[in-house]
Amino acid sequence: MKYFSTRGSPDLLTFSEVVLIGLSKDGGLFIPQTIPTLPSDWKTAWLNHSFTSLALEIFSLYIPDNEIPRKDLECLINKSYSTFRESDITPLKKIKENFYILELFHGPTFAFKDVALQFLGNLFEYLLEKKNLESLEKKDTNKKERITILGATSGDTGSAAIYGLRNKKDISVFILHPRGKVSPVQEAQMTTVLDKNVHNIAVEGTFDDCQDIVKTLFSDNQFNQKHNLGAINSINWARILAQIVYYFHSYFQLFSSLNILPNSPEANNIKFQYCVPTGNFGDILAGYYAKHMGLPIENLVVATNSNDILDRFFKTGRYEKIVKIVNDGEGNGIGGHTVYETLSPAMDISISSNFERLLWYLAYESIDTKSGKEKINLAGSIVKKWMDDLKSKQCLTVERAQLELALRDFKSDKISDQETMETIRRYYVPQDSRSQISYVLDPHTAVGVAAADRQKIPSNMYQICLSTAHPAKFSAAVEESLKSFSEFKFQEILPKEFVGLLEKEKRCVYIEKADPEMVKKTIECELEKEFI
Ligand SMILES: *Cc1c(COP(=O)(O)O)cnc(C)c1O
Questions:
Q1: pTM for the whole thing?
Q2: Cα→Cα distances 186→17, 66, 155, Å
Q3: Dihedral sign from CA coordinates of 522, 525, 528, 532
């Protein structure tokens, strides 16, 4: 199994290369040469597998044994998920008839990104160590490779990356966040990690300012080479891979809760639909891979907040940033682009970075006249043109037939803050408490649940909504939604890990101006201190 870029570059790369490189030289994202199919007996052979055993089977389909031997892979997986608080890793909870919530927030930072980043951190360390051993054998001893991970965060990614990379050998991590603009819990989760290799930088400015600084530093060849910069953002293939596992896991969990064997005749009559609160399209894209590997998923429902670029795409075939008429200061309205601030901040995006991978499959499958290599090349050139359009015109449009292809797998919906809050209330106090349990949703999960409730589904269909964060992580939105219920006590849902978190010792460098040069100096100064 090799990997190539969505934008047509002919290079074939190994799994290890795509993990360490992240983004292709031509600006594209890496995808596997083919989507592997499942062993014919998977429904019985994997039936009683734990999360980690399933991960091993699924990862092995994408990672050749000669790159990471199965024994090593097993170790990496076990180590990665030993930090989760639930033995099931991602437990499935029945809320009401035909409706389940898949809890993805039992990792160290209480959000779904841990599922991927706990693994990615260990994987990085493993691949670096292997590289260093190899160069040692070649007597290339002075070339010990280190990597400096650099990223910007508006909250969740930063803390999950820090917990994934803390105390990892030969890796330093620098996370920039806009000072005062991440929630107090998120800020504390990042800055209270005191490991020597973890460096937080609070920048006076916005998330976009932080993102721009990171981009500037990555494109600064001298700085980039000197420190061997690496990224952990959501386009890294290993993150998608890790997320495929819970789609399979929940499939088996659901059958087990129904007391039906997945390979029985009864099972054929059962349909599945997954609803996913979506931002950068990484979580749901893993579901697309699961489906195309052979997991019988009927639909994947993309649930967005007011930042609805994906919902509009699935309705029109146009992928266009939100245009808002802004005042130019002299009384003239001009078109500008905007991101709305919502109650589900981890989904406040202007474009979805992983969407390009789906675009590649839509392009590829819409070509029916050619085969093999030619078809792959053509798909790459179509995606490249789309992405050029997006850059120059802020918009790309697919053909009707390509949209139809997307609609075989996806549905979509858009949920307002108002609806998010109503949904949190509706699930806290069920209308019929005999058929539904009371459940406290976080605002992101509530977006998915609201979309799920609006779906028209046949009686043999089961919906699974992915829960992406623990409600205590976004306490302000939850408390605001439930303030009229005097019996709701926030303390009751507060995990013990959050108690006293805000008062713990913190380590963070403050930079009073969003200036790349100041960040460069800070990074070099911090690195020096790290190695004393
Ligand atoms: C990152 C995140 C999402 C969005 O996931 P994508 O893979 O970017 O679509 C949703 N909810 C929470 C809590 C998140 O942290």
A1: 0.95
A2: 31, 39, 6
A3: negative
The mean pLDDT value for 140-157 works out to 83
CA-to-CA distance for 150 and 131, rounded, in angstroms? 20
The answer to whether the Cα torsion of 399, 450, 278, 245 is positive or negative is negative
Ligand 1 test: best mutation among 102, 186, 468, 474, most atoms within 8 Å of CB? Answer: 468
Q: Which helix (H) or strand (E) element contains residue 392? A: helix 372-393
- As a whole number of angstroms, the distance between CA 353 and CA 193 comes to 28
**Is 403 strand, coil or helix?**
helix
Paired tokens of 199: 């460096």
Pocket (CB within 6 angstroms of ligand 1): 111-113, 156, 234, 277-283, 346-347, 444, 468-469
Whose structure tokens read 């990892």?
A: 168
CA distances from 403 to 256, 302, 406 (A): 35, 15, 5
Mean pLDDT value across residues 353-373: 92
Structure-block tokens of residue 495: 């995990």
Pocket residue to mutate for ligand 1, from 183, 235, 283, most atoms within 8 A of Cβ: 283
Concatenated DSSP letters of 298-346: -EEEEEE-S--HHHHHHHHSEEEPPEEEEE-SSS-EEEEE-----S-GG
- The residue nearest atom 8 of ligand 1, judged by CA position, is 280
Q: Can you tell me the distance from the alpha carbon of 121 to that of 102, in angstroms, rounded to the nearest whole number?
A: 24
Q: What is the DSSP letter of 53?
A: H
Confidence band of 327 (pLDDT split at 50, 70, 90): low
